[in-house]
Structure formats: C-alpha cells, structure tokens
Design brief:
It contains 2 helices and 11 strands. By secondary structure, it is mostly beta strands. A 5-stranded antiparallel β-sheet has the order 3-4-5-6-7, with helices on one face. The two termini are 27 Å apart.
Length: 106
C-alpha cells in the first residue's frame, strides 16, 4: 500500500518476511516492533516514532485498515540498519543489510 508517497507494510509482513516481533497495544494505539534487542514504537496516525527511545519522523504516519496496521517501510528499515531499493522496471522492493547493487534500465 502506498500512502503519502510512502510504501507502507503490515505488521504481519514484518514478522513473516523480516523476522521482526510486533505487538499492538489497542489501549494506546501503538505498534512495537522489535528485533535483536532494538525496539521501534509507532503510534497510529502520528508520523513521529521512537527507536531505542530516540524520536524520529517518518514520511507518513502508520494507519489501520481492514483490521491491520500499516507502517512506513523505509523509516522502519533505516533505523534497524536495512537499506530499501525500488526497482521501477520490475515494480519490486529489495530490503537488505548490504545492498551494493543498483538496477539499471536497459
């Protein structure tokens, strides 16, 4: 899903694809995302989030849709040390720790 020109992903996909642990707090409307001792806390409808207790600003705010929470992929990936590349030609996103390649149109 794209919101405010930002690719958004579900908490479920963070668990399945990237191995994050996610916990949604329905009372405070926050999503906590953890991996390898690091933690990010996102508040629904707020573009500010915390990573290891330091405040950051994402390009879009997390939002609920059809019973799931969507979070901004690039902001989340960056604070956890991942790179995100977009392959326009193939409409693909690549996420990794060391993406030393670039896609080129032929």
């Amino acid at each position: 899903v794209i919101a405010e020109d930002t690719f958004m992903v579900t908490a479920d996909s963070l668990e399945e694809v990237m191995g994050f642990e996610t916990v949604f707090d329905a009372e405070n409307y926050t999503l906590t995302v953890s991996k390898d001792g690091d933690t990010a806390v996102f508040s629904v409808d707020d573009d500010r989030f915390y990573f290891n207790q330091i405040r950051y600003t994402a390009s879009a705010a997390p939002f609920p849709e059809n019973g799931v929470i969507y979070v901004p992929l690039k902001a989340l990936a960056k604070v956890f040390g991942y790179q995100v590349l977009w392959n326009q030609k193939e409409s693909e996103i690549c996420i990794g720790n060391d993406l030393s390649f670039r896609w080129y149109d032929e």
